[in-house]
Protein 1
Amino acid sequence: MSDLSYEIDSDGIAVITWDLEDRSMNVLNSRSMGEYRDILNKLIPDENVKGIILRSAKDAFIAGADLTSADVFGFDQVQEDKVKAAEKIYNGNMEMQLLFRSMENSGKPFVAAINGHALGGGFEICLACHYRVAIDNDKIQIGQPEAKVGLIPGAGGTQRVPRLAGVNQDIMGFLMAGTPFTPKKALSSGLIHEVTDAENLIAAAKKYINDGGKAVQPWDEKGYKFPGGLPYTPKGAMIWAASSSTLRKMSYNNYPAQSAILSAIYEGVQVPIDAALRIEARYFTKVVMDPVSMNMVRSLFVNMQALNKGARRPKEFQKYDVKKIGILGAGLMGAGIAFVTAKAGIEVILIDTDQEAAEKGKEYSTKILDKQLSKKRTTEEKKEKLLSLITPTTDYSLLQGADLIVEAVFENRDIKADVTAKAEAQIAETAVFGSNTSTLPITGLAQNSKRPNNFIGIHYFSPVERMPLVEIIMGKETSQETLAKTMDYVQKIKKTPIVVNDSRGFYTSRVFGTYTGEGVAMLAEGVKPALIENAGKMTGMPMAPLALSDAVALDLAWKVTTQTKKDLEAEGKEYPVTPMHTLLEEMVEKQGRYGKKNNKGFYEYPENGKKYLWPELSNLCKESDAQPEAEELKKRFLYIQALETAKCYEENVLTDVRDADIGAILGWGMAPWTGGPLSFIDMVGIKEFVAEADNLAQKYGERFTPCKLLRDMAAKNERFHSSGKSGQAA
């Protein structure tokens, strides 16, 4: 098997073509890099070769390092022998650094012909070329996304990028946030030299060589000056002070990669390039060895990729091609589902109780597309094509021929039962019926169906067009074939699926509620509202808990709470009335504060101004004289989510650790640096976690008491991310 090939033309220009045979995208791994090294060892000494071009035979250039391969940086050894792992990671990194330096110092011009995405190591190999030309296409991404998965650029990115473009807001976003550039943006930033059309890409690359293009990098030339000023210059000092402030605001010191990137740049730009690359290699090794990095790589790259490729799909069933679906309910959720479904080229029948409501649901897609049109992200033709796939109606007979139904009406069992019966009267026996309920058990809703084996939960997140996760819920009678069909649909609309078993609140809604609930509980205890909110953000959550409660709607939380109380009492079970329950009742029933929806919740929402915490909260919930440390509150937020997730695992709501971690990060935004709740427990250490949870339980209540599963695991010193917990977990 050969991944790379080369040809030498009559002018003496060698064109190296990357085309990994077994991959949809080119990646840097031990095999491909070994082949590349062997080719360079032939071409560089060859006197008949006057220049070298790197190109790709695939739609993308190179997507970066293959993080799914444990041998790339030595991830497989980190848990076993940290010293040997660190040596392997550092030495492996320096091998690549030296290889790229051999390109720069070869005396022959190297040109990167960038035809598609050049990301991570795929762009770093371009940076080691003396000239970079890219196709002028705004869909192409050029970037260093390593920080998004907890790593730092490890093949010269932290050193070559600032040496080309200096240090500014855009470049710091490029490196520390992983924000990609379009080719035009990369050109204006100084990271590439030229843009052209696809037909002239190789010709432009050859022209540089034939015209006698330099075979030396700017930083290797005598008299090179760092753009914008070094850190010890007055101008440079101002830039670096701002960067440090941005870092603190961005990461709250939760993300070692961002700090390492900034340090590597700061130290590296003050020394010659070869010393700088060794600095980068040391920081890269340090970050890879950090458990935060390990968690993020495993969850946000390896396991995410596995789920997106259908790791949880039953393999024994043929691919199910969903061509037509019916959506029952044209409200916010139904309208969003209609948009993402039509975007995937699927015909949509959007049903509501009256035509006006149905039309309003379709209008949601029109507004999204008009906004995209104004930003030149779509065309009028594409807009009309998508809209033509959505038929707003009140006529259930139009559901005939639908492969799948998605029910998205109000959280009312009677209404859901009514629309289920109407839809099932029109659809084929083989069609899937999915409910978008976020709280009502699927098994109970399936009792209204004539075909409970075809009934499944398909829980989207709002706003549907932006949220990447879909939670698939298996009822007691849901068949594996129905699961396979649903997975095929979710993949087609390009969402990440997780699979859970039926339970009240399922997984995401159930655990998400612990975060907002803990914020409300703190408020009821007398913790200052501002302290609660700041601690939530410092934890790494995307929104502070009280603000998030407002956004979700306090009256909805109260409805769910009261419904849960009724259901438990009907089952003969006791519902514990907590301070949170009492506070919600006060806010909704007595104060009429429903959240952002009526501009009155824990916050006030003035028409022409920024929101602010409701001043009366301090009177409603008397503040304690002694306030807790922020670190204590952060711990409570993280532990309560992890504890409830472990309960879901114990109760078989979750059966795969990947679903737990990815569902938490994508579903409600659990702090990505943790790698997800079960990764967080592993990171703390099972024995330490259980001991600290017991301590929290003594202080704040039974909700922090570890479940039996955790105690059993602590006794055996087990981890969730091991072969014993999921046969397919990374």
Note: Confidence is low (pLDDT under 50) at residues 70-77, 723-730.
Protein 2
Amino acid sequence: MKLKHAHGAKSRHMKFAAASLLAATLLGGSLLNANKAYANAVNDYVKQGLSQKHWTPAKEENRLGGIKYKSNYLNGKGRPTMVINHDTANPNSTIDGEIAYMTRNQESAFVHEFVDGNRMIGIADTDYISWGSGPQGNSRGVQVEQVHVHSKDEFARELMNLAQFNVNIMKQYGLTPSIGKANGSGSIWTHAMVSRYLGGSDHVDPDGYWAKSASQWFGTTYTINDFASLVSDVYYGRTQASAPANIQASTKVRQDGGNFIADVTVSGDTSRITEVQVPTWSDAGQKDLKWYTASKINANTFRVVIPTANHKSTGTYSFHTYVRSNDGKFTFKNANQLKYITNGVTGKTQHKLVNGKLVITTTLSGDVGRVTQVRVPTWMDQNQKDIQWYPMVKKSNNVYEYQVDVTNKNYGVINTHIYTTSDGWQDKTITTNGFTFESPKVTGVTKVNVTADTIEVTAKLTGDTSRVETVLFPTWHDPAQKDLRWYPATKLTDTDYKLSIPLRDYNKAVGNYITHSYIKTAEGKNQSFAANTYTYSGVVKPEVKPQVKPSEVKVAKTGTTDKLGVIKTSSTDANMYQGNPPLTKNGGKVVDKATSRTGQTFRVLRETTLSDGRVYRYGLFGDKQYYWLLSDNLVDVVETPVLNTDVKLETPKVYGAINRNAVDIRQDDPRYRVVSPYQDYNRVIASNSAKSANVQLTRKVTYKDGSVWYEFTQSNKNGQTMGWVSDKYVTVK
């Protein structure tokens, strides 16, 4: 059996961001949900459960027999070299549901084992490979899936069960605990490590699941290093929780220009300190909260510099102190507050949009003579991931300006602040409300007129029309959009656009036409707006009489026909004219020549015989649109079979088989394949060489020339194919 590809049972693996801090208590208390414990706090909780709560790993349940595939590892039967740990990527599934699904779909993927907080269930013989991590991982490792759990205890117990399974496999196959490396060595692996080091897959589990769960319930992170430590402790019997550290800390905060400096003095078991952090905020709702890591400057002192430019207010700042120790604890120690003293410069800011640029003008007041620099940060992302700092240009003693190019920015609110620098001290002077950058919109689409040939439509735009490149009107008549076409409108003014939809593109079919309006900006972005419906009833608008003198042209007769034909000429070409030659003094403008005596499909719509005997035929030719064909060198238009009439339609709804020989599969109903020169309905969309491929025959069409075509659907592992196939390639059961 060929090794399968990456883990087919999982549809996705999501990346999770670390949980942010919530609101703080009053001064003197600690931050709520700020218990950002050392990563091994999760492991310590597991050890506490094992030593103090009498937790025991789950006993393995045996559900072998459902997996039918058996292939040896790279080194042979019963010789795995690693354990590969996964998660299911489904927060709503259960262990029984995952096992049932994977057993049903084992042809795509399966693993050896499943674990959750209470159970450990084996579904495949670990002496043989499973298909969970691509060919490189499959050929080397025993593979186990974690089902998503939903509580602190469940997650800890699941890790306990997962670690125990890793240990069981290692002892069964003579392995010892070690983290996987790029050269393929090591016994403890994740799917993410297989993708990164060995290749053959692009999944990154269980990193996201571990990170989210550890953050949600322990306020920390959890990585392969932490899990490997837990596996090693279980393997060697080190499952006793460590004693807590005894550490005291006091903090002093002072302002230094535009910065705060916090000094943290520690005492007690200071050798056990692994980290000191000072979370800081100025906003009452902690919207500008940031965590700062202090640096050790001597045996008992840690220091951190806190830039006020990172925060939202010039008012009172709050500072808390947390100490992380090697016992896995992250402990709140104290709280401080200090009012920020500004440089005394204030001002007002105005915004306006001019030619694709946001002009920001700031008028300062106060001690402006000391100002040496004014800067404006701008951003649109609520987390300021796209923040950019710009130096403002001094226009007068107290007026500064900067123009931000917004042509490449998304629409929305552009936030701005103003910072001044006096005597080397940067100070946030002005907090603005930002500027709403409104996207261009279609506010109204109006049907101007419906003629025998066109539907005329107008559109009016609002918003930032300077970035509009074109306005598009996708239009269709067929409910399934098989005749969908995109039309660019003509620009009349910056806000007004007009379009004439040619009905010939739809063979002038009567009924409703659906039109949507799209705006395409200079950045290539399409913005969609409301749909509109127009009805074409087939009523022809009275023809405007040509402005010619009766003596110039005399028309003997006119007629209409609806036949397809082949042009034959007595010489090498026949002239084609733009316009209406029978009603034009000089016969119109020559636009092309019919240079082929045979093989040129020509659909005649109208004939006109002039008084001098000249005959013009009006219609469709090749890939051209409407024109007149001069008959001076024309021998005849020979009729050919028209396949869109006199057809017999049947609905067999039976199964059949496609013959082994190559089969042309047509995209659309072949009865239309020669009707319109503007659309290639006869395009081959596939070639099927299968010996016997089951198909569902949905319609049978017999044409007046005796040809028979079947409409069909065909489903296989590659999806579904729809089209038409000739009866010579079909065997009906």
Note: The radius of gyration is 39 Å.
Protein 3
Amino acid sequence: MAAAKAARALARKLRAELERHNHQYYVLDQPSVSDAEYDRLFRELQQLESEYPELVSPDSPTQRVGGTPLREFDQFAHRTPMLSLNNAFSAEEVMAFDKRVGEALKSSIIEYLAEPKFDGLAVSLTYARGEFAQGATRGDGYSGEDVTPNLRTVKSIPLRLSGVAVPELLEIRGEVLMYRRDFERMNQRQRANGEKQFVNPRNAAAGSLRQLDSRITARRPLRFFAYAVGVIEGAAAPETHSELEHWLEKLGLPVCPERRVVSGAPGLLQYYGAIGARRADLPYDIDGVVYKVNSLAAQERLGYVARAPRFAIAHKFPAEEASTEVQAIEVQVGRTGALTPVARLKPVFVGGVTVTNATLHNLDQVRAKDVRVGDSVIVRRAGDVIPEVARVLAEKRPSGSVEFQMPGACPDCGAKVERLESEAVYRCTGGLFCPAQRKQALLHFASRRAMDIEGLGEKLVDQLVEGGIVHTPADLYRLGVAKLAGLERMADKSASNVVAAIEKSKQASLARFIFALGIYHVGEEIAKILAHHFASLAKLLYADWEALIAEKERVQKENTRRRNKDESLLAPVLPGVGPEIIQSVANFLGQPHNREVIEQLRACGAVNEAETIVADTPRGSLGGKTFVLTGSLPNLSREEAKVLIEAQDGKVVGSVSAKTDYVVAGSEAGSKLAKAEQLGIAVLNEAELLQLLKGSR
């Protein structure tokens, strides 16, 4: 008696919860729970009603489909019910379904039609004497919403059927959906117009079709696929479901091309695996596969249970969305210093794997979704995509929750965290000593355009860092042959070559050294400007950056005023370097640990400051001349040629235009040479380039 009473109370609770979710999903288009969680609750109620048959009632969610139609639409009574399908979640359940069908039909091998299960909105289309007369949503399976004007705007739905022997009356069942690429484009437009963005293509399709203003629907990229027939009058029905869909295709209706006729449970499971492997490549979202007994006569013999046909079943894919709880929000530091907030989750099975973490991308995304510790959230994972928090179930938020705040200091090294005005990302400024950035910092420091340490590649850097031998670039200059020779794939000869390359790098210019530091936003050209302006590393280190920013902003403002009055302009401070870049340099050099590493590099002789004082050197006569390099030169690499040209204040660009002064061409020069000849631009070989450079000094 007590058990029955408890079961009754649990059934009442489950029904209320499922009805609430139905209303949110089918009526409001605002799902409050993941599909996987809904399926779990539904199956729990099914099991309970199976154990206690007296609990089954006509208003139970297990006895009907969908939700109540909106009052704003006229109701449409379906001529035959649009029932949903029972679900299978495992191979064992599919085999059990095939066994039941075989036993009922007294046949050992059953032929089925298998096709994708669209993740859209089910509708019915009624054609009278070949003309589209009425369309409706599924609603609760027995009556839906009359959305005829909206369906008429869907371009893939024919307004008149084609072919011969068109029935007097034909009611078609199918799915309205939205292609993923169309969904992305639509959301981009919504963002640009400051309008609501949709969560996924399914919600977008449902929301678009159920607009009271059909003009809005007409602007939405909806599509339709037919997959069944409710009523046929005035024409003979085909004998199989596959022939039926082929017939619909001949009438001009779109039918899924991915459908296949298969035999028995092995054929069903083979199709499931094949379509699952192609799932990410399909243009639309699917959440499983539908299996139907192919013979229409056999379908009729098998009939229906309370809410679903006995002749068909939906084999669902592992859930790509699931609900769980945010247990903590931590911040990870990437190789480039970018800080990414990550949600630590209560483990949940989604997309075929157990998920414990989900990226929150950046602070703007956290704010937009308002993710907090303790929140119940929907986690999304599609294919191999990194799991992400799709949305927060705000109604389940615990009291006392607080907004997430990005830390002011790097969690790995304690350096200051910066966020430039033009970016959404926060970054660690401790690039020379931050453990998270160590490998990337060393590889950049040693790269060809920086200090050019030949032989110091990714594999060697991995060994040096993971072995605790090198922590900062300064440690490179303390390496000896013996230490390197003891590493994997390193012999005395190769170790000696690396040590020699490190020693040779001490000849690097100040510009290369500045670039090698890896300051965010400081590329090769900015490094050259800084080197030219400050003339020495010491002046760069002890610059008054706040004063520079203030002066740059003052000159910019003054030049704006002068430009409006057609007056002569002031010379800009650090031309080509904006306040944002200056602030980035200031933040980097403001970190004591970065300065410590730089001082260590100076002590090692990693930069020859005496040779890089260029502030007072006269400009070369190539100033203002533009060069393009193409083909292979006999003796010079393109990089060496570029350095020589830029040393004389020439400019090297990547493409030929009417503004190009010279094209330097080597062997195997291609389209750039042809374009230069077409435009009448001077073409130089290596010897002529060297002669020009000699004459410009």
Note: The first helix runs from residue 2 to 27.
Protein 4
Amino acid sequence: MKKAIQFGAGNIGRGFIGAVLEQAGYHVVFADVNEQVVARINSDRAYTVQIMDTVCEQMRITDISAMDSRSPELAAQIAGAELVTTAVGLTVLPRIAGAIAAGIAARRDAGVTEPLNVIACENGVRATTQLREAVLKHLDEAQRDWCEQYVGFPDCSVDRIVPPVKSENPIDVVVERFFEWNVERAAFKGAVPEIPGMNPADNLIAYIERKLFTLNTGHAITAYLGRMKGYMTICQSISDEHIHTIVKAAMRESGRGLVALYGFDRDAHFAYIDKIIGRFRNPYLCDDVTRVGREPLRKLSAGLSSAPPLRHRHARPAAGRRRRAALRQPRGRAERGNAPSGHKRRCQGRPGPHRLPSRHRPAAAARRTGLRGSGTYHRQNPRSTMKRPSPLLLLLTVCCAAVLPACAQAPIPHAVRIGSIEELQAYFTYDPGRDIIVSGHRGGMMPGYPENCIESCEKTLSMMPTFFEVDFSFTRDSVMVLMHDLTIDRTTTGKGRVADYTYAELQQFCLVDRDRNVTPYKIPRLKDLLEWGKDKVVFNFDNKYINTRGVSDEVRRASLDYYIKQLQPGGDWSMYHNIMLSVRSVEEALYYWEHGIRNVMFCVEISSMEHFRAYDASPIPWKYIMAYIRLAVNPDLQPVYDLLHAEGVMTMTSITGSSDKVKNPYDRRVAYLRELVAEPDIIETDYPSEFIGLPWSRDAIHALQEAAMRSHRTNLK
């Protein structure tokens, strides 16, 4: 049985390298310091890889075991293995070098002469070479000679998005379908192993830099610009057309340089760029912009992200001296094997100077932009600690300098102006080709932004088209404030009933977000919300005094009359045309109608044929109605939905008590996608921003439905 030792049992280790090796017929021994993960792998002897794409699949990984990477017994495991791989992070490689060296020494002592190949599958340039140098430090001269003869250290380039998604089983993992594993063919000892999905490459540096200056560049720009605009995930960020335009332009700019340097087919490379952007848009891969943008100095600094030049393993030592001499040449001098501006030349013995055209050289860009020293080799003070910026840093600098003013000055992009009841009715008229609307329940929430808060509404509206359901309550001095509950205990830093405080007294408390984190925001007045939302967004008012249990009939009737007073000519709400009233019965709707209220629409519950007939028999025209159809689309009620659509009425599900309650982020996102595929006209959710990056358009939803049907038909054959 073939055996592989995989250092690192994290998401990449399990979801990418370990899974590929197990599928290739290896028994995979995971070596990790996480005792809980090690114990769970040894207990279950299996885990599931969720492949998330247009059509989702599951892959069961079963031929596995695990052990503590600090255990002395690991050396014996390495002694009997054909392959050692890592997915631990560049900074951890020196820490595992001793264990690998001990395994190599054990192979020598046991007289094993079958080749062993060690591959560091890390997100960095020449990671295996770095690991090799660290391993050799733990070996004596005789062991190093033996290692040189029988152990290969191929460098590689890896590419697969594996987001940190928690699941019920802590060792299950979520991955994208795409992956790429390019390994330096010439550095293998013995025959190159046949591993489906692994590509033995003759020009590895081309693949390394293609990934670095395409995927990593695009990922970083998406993360940094998305963070600046308040997005939380990569798919949210890339769904912003402004960011998408910038990212694509930057990737095409770096792409032109790669095509010139390595001879990639231009059309194929630009198609590769489009594929990568499509991966960023994958609605199932909810990768956080903070995680992707973490450690900017490591990602952007040449001194940290770029490793020494990649040399052929048989290159003469003098090559290094020639390179150092070349670096001391005056600016503008091109020597054979010298790097073009911004790139260290990784390969020896290649013909020609391999210089980029001037329009593609970072040095030329630096001269045009006044960023001196960003791409040209030159002597520095040997005592200076300043690092030469990498081409990626320059690229990001130029891109961000061009777009940041536009980002900062951009108005709220999803505002809608409603100037009359007719325009409100037109906004909510059913159209079979219209995109699904995602509505923010209680004004929408996200980390740092609490419910029923003007700042939360503004943040959500800046990110996506929506409208808001809001709630209100009365203070002791009869000020109407935004508040779902009759008390402030759950949503603020205070305690007690809203009605026991004046509005001024309530301002001593701060609102808290859904995770109970204190925010700087205060309880707002309803009139301030209305003024903010004028010419921006529609509000759906939910009167808790009418619909909350335990409220007396006297208070309920007084609340109805208050609504009417505000909406009638001369009332505080009469000047606004962006209001919908949420009602629970045909009797409540008729109460407003019979009092002459004609400047609002009604969100009414129609979840049965009886409900439809009751409203159809009422004097309220259908153009004043939006239909709430409860928690989910019910196929048995399709005739009711068809009748509503025939009247031009849009249907809305509220998932606040269903899909919103799913705790696991991955499972919740899958639940949201399922809600979209069911095709209500409107979805009301506590977390509208989490829908960013999911398919809202009818065409996209129909494409998903068709893909699922094709997959189903294929499985039936």
Note: The chain has three domains: 3-200, 203-312+358-377+388-410, 421-471+537-716.
